[in-house]
Amino acid sequence: MKLWQKIFLSSLCLIIVAINIISIVLLNNTHKLIIEREQSHAISEYEYFAASFSNNAIYERMRSEKIILSTDDIKKIGTELVNGRLKNQPAAIYDSKRQLLCSSNPPEFFQTNDVIRFVSGISINSDSYSTKVFNFSNVRYMVVCSAITVEEQTFFILTASDVSEIYTLRDKQTNFVRQVGLISAAIISLILLITVIILLRPLSRLNTYTKAIADGNYKIRIRKRGSREFRELADNMNIMADSIQINAARLEKIAEDRQVFIANLAHEMKTPLTSILGFADLMQIKKNVSDKERSEYAGIIVEETKRLRSLSGKLMELIALGGTETEKAPVSLPAMIKETEASLTPILTKNSVTLSCSCEDITISADEELFKSLLYNIIENAVKASAIGQQIELRAGMSDGNVVIAVTDHGIGMTEEDAKKVFEPFYMVDKSRSRKAGGAGLGLALCVKIAELHHAVLTLKSKLGEGTTVYIIISGEECL
Amino acid sequence: MINILIIEDDVNIAKMIKATLSIVNYNGHCCYDGKSGAAEAIKGTYDLILLDIMLPEMNGFQVMEIIKNCGTPVIFLTAMQDVADKVKGLRLGAEDYIVKPFEALELLARIDVVLRRSNKTQNIITYGSLSVDISSHIITDNGVPVQLTPKEFDVIVYFLQHQDIAVSRERLLSNIWGYEFEGESRTVDIHVQQVRRKLGLKDRLITIPKLGYRLESQDK
Which of B163, B172, B48, B49 has its CA nearest to residue B115? Predict the structure, then answer.
């Protein structure tokens, strides 16, 4: 069952039950009050009748100057009295043995078992009045009965009054209340239904949105409407959608990067392979290969094989870096720079480029070999970018609490567009040039990985034709 | 003379393709980026274009968009094994694609198929006293028709189209019989022997140990 149906039905039931209970209680209460009033009325009526009976007996005794009245005399007095009663106020007198002495119409009423049993239940000595309501041929009588001593004989006098009207009234009221109850229940249920549906409408809206998000539409956001709970829920769901979107985008980016990486890797591997296979094949299938051609083809095969070797080497390094924990130890930055400089000397002399280093005495926590390889790669790139006779400057020092190492060359530089992409794996600003230099396009990607392991950031400033500066910014926390 | 435009950014690959083409006497012209390649292709002086996809300036698909109205058949060269890329290339109007790395003869075979489709190859090849009409499947020796089975005919045509090239049995199998015959190199030997016998090519169609066969060109 749906929530709105549950809320609607349970509220409706509660309301109907409450209305019924209240009206029944009210009606019964009113009825009881009326009955009580009628009772006291009947009792005074009874007292009047009893007094008349007693007085008439005395008067009759005085008039007939008897010492004692006979039962018949008393019966005659009683008969006269009861016959003088109004039609709707019958009365009867029973003797001490509770035998009917005389009664007004309808006499059958006073002989019904219920009435006789009622009379039998009244003790002779009691001076209080017993009242009860009897139903006789569709007429309700309120009966008052008590024992009375007249002329030294005990009689039971029973007066009744027709109270049907009260009961008819009660039934009428009950019917009326029932009708009003039904109509009001219908109206209430209608209002309730509309209210519940309106109140719960945001829920179905939330549901639709959630489904949309589940279906992968992460951009969708829920408008905040409805009661506070729904607004809060919408807020939280929007927060959830935000984080889903961010995470999905992140995963997408990772997947995309991986895709690009694999595509690039395939390209970078297949390009040299194509040349190698092609030229080797040519040498095999061609009938006459001149010496000049042979040496050219072989030269290309060697060159391309070297390219593959460099690529696989760099690739292995990159893979190894991803999995290993770095073993960091305190190392002196100037010493590391000096060692890197020494290992760079062959390249520097080959390209006739000079390197000038200035470094503050800083000790950092780093994996020495990896960090040297980072420095080596960056300076090597600077050398590749430089022309013969140019100088490369390396400056290392503290800035804003971070250690900053800046490597500046005055070489070819690059455009802003290239500078953005240069840290991507396999990106080469000038493909043919870097390939001739044996580059695989993975050097800076390696540097980024190493920097990450040292909580360092690589940034780059470059201008086409003026040179490039690469900054290694190491968080101050790594500084000892 | 068949003119083929090679649009390939890697200098060595371009050189290799050009050298491969030269052994069947096709003339290759190299362009090293998309822009100049497209400009060259638009001239319409080429019988076929070999187009790399990953190109600087303008990628292969963009070049394809520009040149597809020239009517010159295009074969894509791609390092990707992505089916979507191949489909994209073919949908753009390319005749075929070759996945790098490829063997020289595979390249030539693909080129051959495309050229034949566009009727750019010679229909009649003469070799000494032999004359082969490829379209009508007739081979004559000094004007006298020689009876060859269809497969034997295919074999001699293949050798005539690849003179002076060492052709492996596998290559012959895959080109003439199709890949499902892989491994049955005896079939090739029998057919080559039949061709030799029927056409008197004993000294010309020579066996190269461990590799296959080669038809020597007549001028040497």
Answer: B48
